[in-house]
TrEMBL record:
The chain crosses the membrane at residues 12-33, 45-69, 103-121, 167-189, 209-227. GO terms for molecular function: metal ion binding; small GTPase binding; superoxide-generating NAD(P)H oxidase activity. GO terms for biological process: angiogenesis; cell migration; cellular response to hyperoxia; defense response; extracellular matrix organization; hydrogen peroxide metabolic process; intrinsic apoptotic signaling pathway in response to oxidative stress; JNK cascade. This is NADPH oxidase 1. Residues 284-391 form the FAD-binding FR-type domain. One of its GO terms (cellular component) is NADPH oxidase complex. CDD domains: NOX_Duox_like_FAD_NADP. It is found in: Cell membrane. It is a multi-pass membrane protein. Keywords: Cell membrane, Glycoprotein, Heme, Iron, Membrane, Metal-binding, Oxidoreductase, Transmembrane, Transmembrane helix. It comes from Rhinopithecus roxellana. Its main location: membrane.
Length: 564
């Protein structure tokens, strides 16, 4: 399993470091607040829930610092495409950017829950100690007045005995921003589920922009200074370990213990998130500038199965195989941007995308382009951005697997190969390509029939028939289609597609396919590229591990999946 294991363990190591930092920060902060003299009196009211709240707050700051970095797509494309230090192993980690983004979000949710629960206990204890009349230390500390001319004398944020926790929550900066951040976080996380993202992309898109309120709330959350500690000057005048037991003597002028003075901790969250926020703002400014450059639509093609092809030009646009762009149509929605893989080759003088009807926005876009006597809708484009498919020509052998419209990145690759053959490019490292296209209906195969036919003819002319081994699989079929195909099996071309390669019915037997490839290329590095569903990714990843040799000098399979 060789290099596959190296990549796997590199990812595991990265996650272990991140998890380890979370644990370290939590434990370190917990112990700090449990032992710090500054919070001795605060602990007399709140107990250990003070340390839980502060430790989880530190972890929230740490993860909020990280949450925006995986979605800085221009930065990731720069690292992927231009940095010489990005080895194959490191570049593969960049492909997991959205996975890491989700994991960080889940960690934020976890620490948010801990933070909220701890503060619920804290406010309950603040309320009980404020209402207490037993003359205990906690009740004395809670009764310290908010009206002192000297700043920072109070410790309990609940000023009066009849003040409710709800009142403090919605009238303090910390409480109000906490509620806003929690609501924003709940909406963002629930709308980012797989079902909503695929079925109601607009809901996901709009609610995810509530991150603005989350970030702003986090930046000002600590301004109120509700959690307070004893000042350094007050500690020097009377150490809490000595003076806590003689609190009745605090107002005695002859006593060496003076009434303690308290102050709020300066807000720290903004220090954690400032740099990532600036980086993200620069990213958005760059993307806005690119999106405002004029896009000229040169050709519109309607394919079967409700698929729209747009061919476009844009000044200064430069792409690599397998990259994707974000597309906006202002006449449909001013704010919605949807990702689409480029289906054109870098060698072409235009760039193209194929759009399948898969929701309100795409259906409205296709409908707008179908109207014959209406002006062509204006399109804005942001990108291109890098993906795993960019690395396809770095492998001696490439296995391309597309499911339905997931064939689009491989159309770009196959077109580029055709142009490389035309120009007799001798620098092409790739010696063999296996291409698998799995579709539910026969009409889908017509999207790139012309491309596959051209490749067949070109490879025959150059004597490279064995360079491309492609298989087409039809998963949605009935007995009539199978019978029709069987009756015409002896014909030179396939009855369904018109290609020389016959269409197979059902799904590939991946163990057989990988076994054959491993046997045919016993000492090659094989890149496996998928644009398709998660279940298929799971099967292919297992096959990559299973059929990679433990000997690094023998066959190695590297799994790559499109993520955008």
């Amino acid at each position: 399993m060789g290099n596959c294991v190296v990549n796997h363990w590199f990812s595991v190591l990265f996650l272990a470091v991140w998890l380890g930092l979370n644990v370290f920060l939590f434990v370190d902060a917990f112990l700090k607040y449990e032992k710090a003299d500054r919070y001795y009196y605060t602990r007399k009211i709140l107990g250990s829930t003070l340390a839980c709240a502060r430790a989880s707050a530190l972890c929230l700051n740490f993860n909020s610092m990280l949450i925006l970095l995986p979605v800085c797509r221009s930065l990731l494309s720069f690292l992927r495409g231009t940095c010489s230090f990005c080895s194959r192993t490191l570049r593969k980690q960049l492909d997991h950017n959205l996975t890491f983004h989700k994991l960080v979000a889940y960690m934020i949710c976890l620490h948010t829950a801990i933070h909220i629960i701890a503060h619920l206990f804290n406010f309950d204890r603040y309320s009980r100690s404020r209402q207490a009349t037993d003359g205990s230390l906690a009740s004395i500390l809670s009764s310290l007045s908010h009206d002192e001319k000297k700043g920072g004398s109070w410790l309990n944020p609940i000023q009066f005995r009849n003040t409710t926790v709800e009142y403090v929550t919605f009238t303090s900066i910390a409480g109000l921003t906490g509620v806003i951040m929690t609501i924003a976080l709940i909406l963002m996380v629930t709308s980012a589920t797989e079902f909503i993202r695929r079925s109601y992309f607009e809901v996901f898109w709009y609610t995810h922009h509530l991150f603005i309120f989350y970030i702003l709330g986090l930046g000002i959350h600590g301004i109120g200074g509700i959690v307070r500690g004893q000042t350094e000057e007050s500690i020097n005048e009377g150490h809490p370990h000595k003076c806590a037991e003689s609190f009745e003597m605090w107002y005695d002028h002859d006593s060496h213990c003076r009434r303690p003075e308290f102050e709020g901790q300066p807000p720290e969250s903004w220090k954690w998130i400032l740099a990532p926020v600036i980086l993200y703002i620069c990213e958005r400014i760059l993307r806005f500038y690119r999106s405002q450059q004029k896009v000229v639509i040169t050709k519109v093609v309607m394919h079967p199965s409700k698929v729209l092809e747009l061919q476009m030009n844009k000044r200064g646009f430069s792409m690599e195989v397998g990259q994707y762009i974000f597309v906006n149509c202002p006449s449909i929605s001013l704010l919605e941007w949807h990702p689409f893989t480029l289906t054109s080759a870098p060698e072409e003088d235009f760039f193209s995308i194929h759009i399948r009807a898969a929701g309100d926005w795409t259906e409205n876009l296709i409908r707008a382009f179908e109207q014959q006597y209406s002006p062509i809708p204006r399109i804005e484009v942001d990108g291109p951005f890098g993906t795993a498919s960019e690395d396809v020509f770095q492998y001696e052998v490439a296995v391309l697997v597309g499911a339905g419209i997931g064939v689009t990145p491989f159309a770009s690759i196959l077109k580029s190969i055709w142009y490389k053959f035309q120009c007799a490019n001798h620098n092409l490292k790739t010696k063999k390509i296996y291409f698998y296209w799995i579709c539910r209906e026969t009409g889908a195969f017509s999207w790139f029939n012309d491309l596959l036919t051209s490749l067949e003819q070109e490879m025959e002319k150059l004597g490279k028939v064995g360079f491309l081994n492609y298989r087409l699989f039809l998963t949605g079929w009935d007995s009539n289609i199978v019978g029709h195909a069987a009756l015409n099996f002896d014909k030179a071309t396939d009855i369904l597609t018109g290609l020389k390669q016959k269409t197979s019915f059902g799904r590939p037997m991946w163990d057989n396919e990988f076994s054959t490839i491993a046997t045919s290329h016993p000492k090659s590095v094989v890149g496996v590229f998928l644009c398709g569903p998660r279940t298929l990714a799971k099967s292919l990843r297992k096959c990559c591990h299973r059929y990679s040799s433990l000997d690094p000098r023998k066959v190695q399979f590297y799994f790559n999946k499109e993520n955008f």
